[in-house]
Write a structure and sequence with these properties.
Blueprint: H1 16-20, E1 33-34, H2 46-57, H3 68-80, E2 86-91, H4 93-104, E3 111-116, H5 120-129, E4 132-137, H6 146-156, E5 160-164, H7 176-188, E6 192-196, E7 217-222, H8 224-228, E8 234-239, H9 240-247, H10 257-268, H11 270-292, E9 298-299, E10 306-310, H12 314-323, E11 326-327, E12 329-330, E13 341-345, H13 349-362
Parallel strand pairs: 1-11, 3-4, 3-5, 5-6, 6-7
Antiparallel strand pairs: 2-8, 7-8, 9-10, 10-13, 12-13
Helix pairs in contact: 3-10, 4-5, 6-7, 11-13, 12-13
Length: about 375
């Protein structure tokens, strides 16, 4: 079969900015110790696998998703201790929620603002929707630059300010007093704040206790770091009137019955996943201790299931680790503040030992 002639394809119908973009790259992890994507390294116990399989097999796959989505929203509201007067909506991962927020807030001249380096989807979703993205650099120690953030909010008057809490890829929680000043400044000029707590299972604190104080703050979480990255399910919580408006741009039936039932199954057994998160936090501590013994390696405190470190030569070290069968994330080209930085996912005890050995041998 003859391949189509590229010269005759209607590529000029594709937006110029889209054609200039690079697609989100996912590394081929086959055959590697996979520690590049902040996944929970623990699978379901065999008994729970069988139980879940039977439950999924009984679903009516011939029907569109129905009332089970309402059951899941109720279960998540209880799990997250949602404040009174608030509501939540579901997304096909947090990424879809970020895109839906861009659609809902796409007014002429609207901007999205976030600290950088941070989650790449904030900028990507803004660009794809035609919004301006304003990135405000963190300090050299990856803290919020309070003065720069407040000045940018006053100057740009963004529709949305994203605060990744903890931040990806730096893994740190920011100073609560600075966060609150940013929240108040954004509220004073009439914009939204989205607190993104994707990594909350591994963090020392959450914004949930302060959420009810504000009528302009939305709060986002995902079940990916809970231990269900494969089912792609995120949720957005906020004042009911705000969520109702954002929910209008959500595609119908965006959460499959399989995703929904998997999430309900996991929430009913939350203690299993909480134990896994506890084990990951313990492994993180041991991994940090091991990294601290390596000459030429600088680390930063982590409140997530990842650790950011700086090495003398990130490209050489990354390739060396890959040659030794360990896949991590080279983030050194993401932002100038990340020069020679790698991001390591916290794995099992055996995976972390292999990662440390590969890192030491590759420095």
């Amino acid at each position: 079969m003859t391949a189509p002639d590229p010269a005759r394809l209607p590529l000029d119908r594709i937006r110029t900015d889209v054609r200039a973009m690079h697609a989100y790259a996912v590394q081929d992890a086959r055959g590697f110790v996979k520690l590049d994507a902040m996944e929970n390294p623990f699978g379901l116990p065999l008994a729970l696998q069988a139980e879940l399989g039977a439950r999924l097999g009984a679903l009516a796959l011939n029907r569109y998703p129905g009332d089970r989505g309402a059951d899941l929203r109720c279960a998540l509201a209880a799990h997250a201790q949602m404040p009174e007067g608030f509501e939540l909506m579901l997304g096909n991962g947090s990424d879809e929620l970020i895109s839906l927020l861009a659609i809902a807030c796409d007014q002429p001249g609207a901007a999205v603002l976030a600290p950088v380096p941070g989650c790449v989807m904030y900028a990507m979703s803004a660009q794809l929707q035609g919004l301006r993205f304003v990135g405000v650099p963190l300090t050299a120690d990856f803290e919020l630059d309070e003065a720069a953030m407040l000045a940018a909010i006053a100057r740009e008057k963004p529709a949305i300010v994203y605060l990744d809490y903890p931040n990806n890829p730096t893994a740190n929680l920011w100073d609560d007093a600075v966060v609150e000043k940013i929240v108040e400044a954004q509220g004073a000029q009439g914009g939204l704040v989205v607190i993104d707590e994707a990594y909350q299972p591994f963090a020392a604190r959450s914004y949930i206790d302060r959420l009810a104080k504000h009528g302009h703050v939305l709060w986002m979480r995902t079940l990916s770091k809970f231990g269900l990255a494969g089912i792609r399910l995120g949720y957005l919580m906020g004042p009911a009137a705000l969520i109702a408006e954002v929910d209008k741009v959500r595609p119908p039936y965006n959460i499959s019955v399989l995703n929904c039932e998997c999430a309900l199954f996991a929430l009913e057994r939350a203690e299993v996943f909480e134990a896994q998160a506890r084990q990951i936090r313990e492994e993180r501590h041991r991994l940090m201790m091991g990294l601290g013994r390596l000459q030429g390696v600088k680390t930063w405190p982590s409140d997530a299931n990842m650790i950011l470190l700086r090495v003398p030569d990130a490209a050489k070290t990354f390739e060396g680790m890959k040659a030794r069968g360990v896949l991590v994330k080279n983030v050194s080209k993401m932002h100038e503040l990340l020069a020679n930085c790698l991001r390591l996912t916290v794995g099992t005890a055996d995976e972390n030992a292999r990662m440390l050995a590969a890192l030491e041998a590759s420095l």
